[in-house]
Amino acid sequence: MFKKILIANRGEIAVRIIRACKELGIETVAVYSDADEDALHVRLADEKVNIGPAPATKSYLNMMNIINAAIVTGSEGVHPGYGFLAENARFSKLCKANDIKFIGPSAESINSMGDKASAKKAMISGGVPVTPGSDGIINNYKEAKALTDKIGFPVLCKATAGGGGKGMRLVKSENELESALRSCQTEAQAAFGNPDVYIEKFIEVSRHVEIQIMADQYGNAIYLGERDCSIQRRHQKLVEEGPSPAISPEVRKKMGEAAVRAALAAKYEGAGTVEFLFDDKSDEFYFMEMNTRVQVEHCVSEMITSIDIVKDGIRVAAGEKLKHKQEDIKINGHAIECRVNAEDPETYIPSPGTIEKLILPGGPFVRIDTAMYEGYEIPPFYDSLIAKLIVWGEDRDEAISRMKRALNEFVIEGVSTTIPFHLKVMNNEVFKSGVFHTDFIEKHLLNTKGGGE
Predict the structure, then answer these.
(1) Given 10, 169, 227, 293, which residue is catalytic?
(2) Structural domain for 49, as ranges
(3) Are residues 378 and 240 in the same domain?
(4) Domain end residue (candidates: 60, 84, 103)
(5) What is the pLDDT of residues 217-263, one digit of tens each?
(6) Sheet holding 4-7, edge to edge
(7) pTM of the prediction?
(8) Active site includes 339?
(9) Would 349 be classed as within a structural domain?
(10) What is the pLDDT of residues 138-172, one digit of tens each?
(11) Which CATH number covers residue 195?
């Protein structure tokens, strides 16, 4: 097992990883930008290293500064969390070259599965259905037009290293194609240090369902059920739940086994997620992408399987075999996660500022993952996610009731948050029915008031 790990991230995921390390008896090193000197992850870690100015490109995306921090502190491993450098093959390779264990997949696996265009090729060869689109990276407008002439509009232009809705554009007509391609490439470069994009057909009525997988260095891989991420705005997930109210045990098994085949084919190691578009009318599913990292919503799977995904990922990186076999995995009850963002709940405009008052919800089966505290100043330079509220219930109805109760207890003053939005979702009759798709917000929530019925 590692003696010391550097966490190459910030915010709630850095805090989450530090807590897992403490339970495993591992010392931790926090890296931070000038804007994060007073951040909670810096306070909780055993050591801290400043890696540069506030902009992510000069700090959290500065590979050499992070590598040097790991070397100076004697860190044996680097945990990238999600976002920033988590799916960067070059960073994984740099860690290896400096005899530092990258806690996640190898550079080769990231290139084959983390790169969404390559992953799509692997899925096709593995017999997994995929959405129509480009066979690889789209380099210019000419290639994009040739493809859209063949598959038609609407299409999605997506960053190969993307996530969180960044580096993604919905293109409805040829008039929008060239500018969408350029802006997608620019945003991808700024967010992930990689401008590569691909294009796929946009399936307008579907659910977004993903499979959590875990694999070790010895050819063992399992899946931990699915999460339904259909409640999203502009491709940014806002509410996740597991299991999906639309998935039967038969489809779950079929999806899970497809995800495991993909992981094994890529010689994958660690925690990962295979994402699908699911047609709940035909029970057909189509591969979208694989995220070669721990997901924001990994907590949902932890709540319904009682498996600590972060700790198991660290164990696997240290050379241990998976603790669990597929037959050990049981789905118990229902979990829901609401992402609380520092944003205006109506306009979604970011709302950085100082947390003047904070009351966290509690009670049975309520979990909060956050880096907030009273007096903390939310910087304007990074993602607006400030907390994840996760609840568990014996069934979906109980989970919804518990989430409503917890949201009503949650008090954050000083900044605007999306808590009112989440209450609208929980009170919405369509959401409560479990029959909805990725267009839920536009179709059932926008321009409504109160419960958004």
Answers:
(1) 293
(2) 4-103
(3) yes
(4) 103
(5) 999 999 999 999 999 998 899 999 999 999 999 999 999 999 998 88
(6) 47-52, 27-33, 4-7, 77-79, 101-102
(7) 0.87
(8) no
(9) yes
(10) 999 999 999 999 999 999 999 987 666 788 899 99
(11) 3.30.1490.20
